[in-house]
Design a protein that fits this description.
By secondary structure, the chain is mainly α. The protein has nine helices and no strands. The protein is elongated.
């Protein structure tokens, strides 16, 4: 064929070239250990060398699962996500939720849900069941638990 794509699944990197690729990847974005290993395995000849390299980078603090976890938590919270969606994002990055368990538990999820509800629907407590159901669905979609949702949609702030 005249316009065939070149195959990139031809692993060829070892040693310093593999290390250079790892640094190039880490300068652009924070990767979890699992993500970095997966990415480097696409180009490496030896999987054991990749694992050793990633462990070394982690020991030298070039790669940190803790930093990745904190970044995911902050990013998801800015997007208005609840605890269930954040847990899912951490699993997707192959991160241990225990890394940020203390910070995760210190967050006032009720306040997060209430502020999100206020931003979308206003301060008033809805009496109409259809509108209430709409608010519940919205907050459920964002990843909040039902007990927090019910408190948030029925809460009236005293000024």
């Amino acid at each position: 064929m005249y316009f065939q794509k070149k195959k990139t699944n031809n692993p060829t990197l070892t040693g310093t070239r593999l290390r250079s690729l790892a640094f190039a990847l880490l300068t652009r974005k924070e990767y979890s250990k699992a993500e970095l290993i997966e990415k480097l395995n696409l180009y490496a000849l030896d999987q054991a060398e990749v694992i050793q390299l990633v462990e070394e980078l982690s020991d030298q603090n070039y790669q940190s699962d803790q930093r990745v976890a904190e970044m995911v938590l902050a990013s998801q919270m800015r997007k208005g996500k609840g605890p269930n969606q954040i847990k899912h994002a951490l699993k997707k990055k192959a991160l241990d939720r225990e890394l940020i368990n203390d910070e995760f538990n210190d967050i006032d999820w009720f306040e997060q849900a209430y502020q999100l509800k206020r931003k979308k629907f206003g301060d008033t407590v809805e009496k109409d069941p259809k509108q209430k159901a709409k608010q519940i669905r919205f907050l459920q979609y964002r990843g909040f638990d039902m007990d927090i949702i019910l408190k948030a949609i029925n809460y009236t702030a005293e000024y």
